[in-house]
Each structure stands twice: as C-alpha cells, then as structure tokens.
C-alpha cells in the first residue's frame, strides 16, 4: 500500500506540474481504443498519429498511460495541451492508422488538483502492473526531478505548504522563460549549482529567488 501511495504521489506531481505549466484553458482528454491487446501496436500507432497531429499544430505536449481492460483490449489515455480535434476526423485518422474507430475527446474542466488526483489514481494503478505512464519532452521542463529534490530539501527552512507554493511559482517561471527568451518549449534546463537552483536558456542563466 505504501508503494502504491508513493507511485500515486509521484504521478500526481508529474500531472499537476504539467497542468501548472500550461494551464487548463487548452487541456484535452483523449482516449484511443485498440482491436487487440498488443501494447507495441497501439504505441506504434500513437506515434504515427502524434506525428500527424503535431505537424498540424494540434498537440503541443502530453502525458499518457495505457489501460488494459478485463476484455483483454488496450486503451490509451492522453491528457494533452493543444487544439480541439473534431471527433469524426480523429476517428477516421485512428481507423486508418490503427484499424479501430472508437475514440473519445473532451475538454477538461474543473480544478487542477481534482484533475491531477483523478489521473494520478488511474495512472499509478496501471504503473503498479508494470505498464506505467510517460510524457512528452515539453510536458514538464528538463531537470524536473532535480529541481523538485532541491525544493524538498528546503523543508527544514520552510513549511511544506510554502514549498508547494514556491514549486508552482517555479513551474510558472519556467514557462515564462520559455516564452520570453524564445528558446522554445522544453528548452529551459534547470540545474543545481553550489546549493542554488539555476535556470539555463542558451547562453544565459538565472538563479532562483
């Protein structure tokens, strides 16, 4: 139970960090079904579909997980940032690529924590069965785990609620640096140097304050 709780917390952290970075305005929840229980087949088909959607400017970043149903089928659940994709277009594209027509897409509404809690509970359950979850390069920033460990070490100096507030501020700061320095999504690297948290954007750098 403790192992499951740790995995759920870790997943919650990944989901909420991505939502904090991107906001919930253009957040979509996508489900793709499969005609078989072949994990490799649906993952391969997803990569082909993703390449098409990315080229069309529909998907910016995502976090995803697999669901293995009792019937032996495989579903792929994707939380992504980007534009809405018409159901009939998505169904036709998925049928052409994977052979299955059943898809579902909807905008995500509600509080960020509620969204993350729901997905974390679901994704961590799959993770316990060795199926896991994964995210795109731009969903969170490079050096996320290193930065989170740096903030957690400050628990001796700050209350945990303050650490969380500062973490959310940190995520928003990364997003702002991506936007205003022009380095691009996922190009801000976060490092630790001499006990300080450092943001690197090309040849320029800033420290956490």
Helix and strand pattern: HEHEEHEHEHHEEE
What is the domain total for the residues? 2
Residue stretches low in confidence (pLDDT < 50, at least 5 long) are none
What fraction of the residues are assigned to beta strands by DSSP? 15-25%
The CATH class assignment of the largest domain is Alpha Beta
Mean pLDDT: 80
What is the CA-atom radius of gyration, in angstroms? 18 Å
Please explain how this structure is put together.
It is built from six helices and eight strands. The protein folds into two domains: 2-135, Alpha-Beta Plaits, CATH 3.30.70.1910; 144-207, no CATH class. It is α+β, with helices and mostly antiparallel strands and 209 residues long. The protein has helices at residues 2-22, 39-55, 87-98, 112-128, 144-152, 160-181; strands at residues 27-32, 59-68, 74-82, 103-107, 133-135, 189-193, 196-201, 204-207. It is 47% helix and 23% strand. The strands form two sheets. A five-stranded antiparallel β-sheet has the order 4-1-3-2-5, with helices on both faces. The protein has a three-stranded antiparallel β-sheet with strand order 6-7-8, covered by helices on one side. It is globular.
Task: Show the helix and strand layout.
Elements: H1 2-22, E1 27-32, H2 39-55, E2 59-68, E3 74-82, H3 87-98, E4 103-107, H4 112-128, E5 133-135, H5 144-152, H6 160-181, E6 189-193, E7 196-201, E8 204-207
Antiparallel strand pairs: 1-3, 1-4, 2-3, 2-5, 6-7, 7-8
